[in-house]
Specification:
Elements: H1 3-14, H2 20-27, H3 32-39, H4 45-51, H5 57-80, H6 85-109, H7 114-118, H8 129-136, H9 141-151, H10 156-169, H11 173-190, H12 196-222, H13 227-230, H14 243-250, H15 255-258, H16 283-300, H17 310-334, H18 339-345
Helix pairs in contact: 1-17, 4-5, 5-6, 5-17, 6-11, 9-10, 10-11, 12-16, 16-17
Length: 349
């Protein structure tokens, strides 16, 4: 693989990402129709035209964004297929397998209509569109797990191992935690080397583990979950917070008493969000800030060594962020949310 050539192609793709000025212009559009009209003047035109054949308005926009994201991910994977860089791209894309399996399990749990579940899936990893459709046809969670096991998909291993425990309580957190734990352990094992590329990817994975753990701690403490029960869903392998620290933080009686533990970490920015953010309604303030930190951290590596394979990973994060921002704008246009409120939800990288 000529990494210089591959990165040149990725930089070419990067030049077509929407800049801050274009996003701000879309935010200021008066309604969803005008938003769609302007989006058709961007690289999303082809996907919008195809999606609008079978769906309209917000559903059409979301389908178009989803199709564009999948096509982009597949294109990036084709650049490194059969080479060492494939391993790093595969780690990122496997996150979507976990997302998709969780989404299907949640949908089956509360009997959400199949089409609604399908609209939330992103077949960018090993589980392609046809495979996900087969999973959606299954009548319940057990049937989904059994089918994954029959296919020998790696996600079936933690699900099968913990299904008996889940069946006793019907607590889906058990299966979701098992999926996360298995994914992060596998990902970290794949980047144990000392090369600069592996160091950067390992740092990104470890940061994502930190963010996931902090979100779990915030939820556990807010909901008054017994620390012994909470221990079961904390992940090891974080960059700045080890398991001993996490267990200490888990015993904080309130979120206000939890946050000072982050003072000496890069996550200290949460402390400034304390006022008024400890209710159920405001928990998203913390979660959004953590998401913003993680996405910015991931996208930043695009601007690193021009001969590093991590340029591809940075681009994938930036592309994901763009699609997420466009979904936010589209949904806000549909519900007539003000531009000021909309901009507060955006993540610029």
């Amino acid at each position: 693989m000529d990494i210089g050539y591959v990165n040149a192609r990725v930089r070419g793709m990067h030049s077509f990402l929407l800049d801050r000025k274009q996003l701000d212009s879309l935010i200021l559009k008066p309604d969803l129709a005008s938003f769609i009209s302007d989006l058709e003047k961007t690289p999303y035109k082809q996907d919008l035209q195809l999606a609008m054949v079978t769906a309209t308005e917000i559903r059409g926009v979301e389908n178009a964004l989803r199709m564009n994201l999948i096509r982009t991910f597949r294109k990036i994977l084709s650049f490194v297929e059969g080479d060492t860089g494939e391993k790093y791209v595969h780690i990122f894309l496997t996150r979507w397998d976990i997302h998709n399996v969780k989404t299907i399990l949640r949908g089956k749990k509360v009997s959400i209509p199949t089409q609604e579940i399908r609209s939330c899936l992103v077949p960018a990893g090993d589980l392609d569109e046809a495979t996900l459709v087969e999973l959606l046809k299954q009548p319940d969670i057990k049937a989904v797990v059994d089918l994954l096991a029959m296919w020998g998909h790696e996600s079936s291993i933690p699900l099968t191992r913990h299904f008996e425990e889940y069946s006793k309580t019907s607590d889906l957190v058990i299966l979701e935690y098992a999926l996360d734990k298995d994914y992060y352990e596998r990902a970290l094992r794949r980047v144990k080397g000392k090369s600069n590329d592996e160091t950067i990817i390992r740092d990104l994975i470890a940061t994502e583990i930190d963010v996931t753990n902090i979100k779990s701690l915030l939820t556990l403490i807010r909901d008054g979950i017994d620390p012994e029960d909470g221990e079961r869903i904390l992940l090891s392998g974080g960059k700045h917070l080890n398991m001993k620290q996490l267990l200490t933080m888990l015993h904080a009686p309130t979120i206000g008493e939890l946050l000072p533990y982050l003072e000496k970490t890069p996550y200290r920015f949460l402390i400034g969000l304390k006022a008024g953010a400890e209710t159920h309604a405001k928990m998203s303030v913390y979660q959004n800030a953590l998401d913003r930190y993680l996405i910015t951290h991931g996208a930043r590596i695009f601007r690193g060594d021009p001969l590093s394979i991590t340029i591809l990973i940075g681009y994938l994060w930036e592309k994901y962020t763009e699609v997420m921002n466009l979904r936010i704008i589209a949904r806000c246009k549909e519900t007539m949310i003000t531009p000021e409120e909309m901009e507060a939800e955006m993540i610029y990288v």
